[in-house]
Amino acid sequence: MVLLTATPRILSAISSLSSSDRSSLATVNLPTTCGQAIEHTTLIAISRLSKTITLNSLLRGTRIYVPPPPPKPQPSPEYVALMAKLRREQEQREYAALVSSSVSSSFDTGREDEDDDISPSLVLNIFLSIILCAAAIFYLTRWWANDGLRVLLSLATGVVVGVAEVGVYAAYLRKVKMSRDKERRKKERKVVLGEYTGTETGGSLALDAKGTPVSVDVHAIMEKEEIWGKGINGGMRRRVREKWQKDQEKVET
């Protein structure tokens, strides 16, 4: 049995049948609108009952009937409750991971500030400098007859080099500490020149905080050096801007 789609020609053929002919097809569900399913055997019976319509004309324009997909079953209350529970648990896990990552990052940042600046590599570097300088002095004075004087001079050289190394690094640490303190105390400020109202000869006209018109030299403002960031080495925005300017200069050259 093959199901076909009903066409207007098939519907007109069914309506043209007599009541007795329709009664003979009473056991079959006849379509009432286009697109409904009709059996191939029913079309053969209609073509035999009708004197003017052939089976070929009835089959013209028809297609294989494809039933619509069944409706999607509604989820059960148990399934809905389980999905809601799983979503809540997932949200709680994501929130806990976010909070733990933020706390760990802040802890790491504070720990970096409190880390000891004296590392094993630094101590090894200082000792190597002392030993190598003392050995170099002892080697350069190999023609001296007094070996004791050579040893004393080598030891004195090592002590001087060690004191110099420690002093230079102590000055560096002090400068770094001062820079950090200055960076923390410094606040970034934004200065509003005023509201632009128009242009005049030799400059622009703006309003100050009190609403008084003042003349502003646009060229002087454009040529003024802009500070992007804060601190002794500048902030992140300043470094990004400098990198961008260098890239632009490389592209232009």
UniProtKB/TrEMBL annotation:
Transmembrane segments: 122-145, 151-172
GO cellular component assignments: endoplasmic reticulum membrane
One Pfam family here: Vma12
Tree of life domain: Eukaryota
Compartments it resides in: Endoplasmic reticulum membrane
PANTHER family: TRANSMEMBRANE PROTEIN 199 (PTHR31394:SF1)
Name assigned to this protein: Uncharacterized protein
Phylogenetic classification of the source organism: Eukaryota, Fungi, Dikarya, Ascomycota, Pezizomycotina
